[in-house]
Amino acid sequence: MTIFKDWTFKWWQAALLKICLLSAGILLGTYFYNYLIELTWLWWTLFALTGVYLFSWFFKQN
Questions:
Q1: Is residue 54's pLDDT more than 70?
Q2: What pLDDT sits at residue 44?
Q3: DSSP of 1-62, one letter per residue?
Q4: Considering only CA atoms, which of 58, 61, 40, 60 is closest in space to residue 50?
Q5: Alpha carbons 16 and 5: distance in angstroms, whole number
Q6: Please, what's the largest Cα pairwise distance for the chain?
């Protein structure tokens, strides 16, 4: 078994994967709160850059 292959998920399996990763992120965020709060500028920058990219990509598709 290899992890570097193509995977096909049903919609509900993808939703479970996203919930799992979101939960892990929240748990890690609460555990490392003091360290992560100092990097708020980084999280806002990543959010803005990826949002602009996805917004422009979406409108180029239409």
A1: yes
A2: 94
A3: --SSS-----HHHHHHHHHHHHHHHHHHHHHTHHHHHTTHHHHHHHHHHHHHHHHHHHHHH-
A4: 58
A5: 20
A6: 43
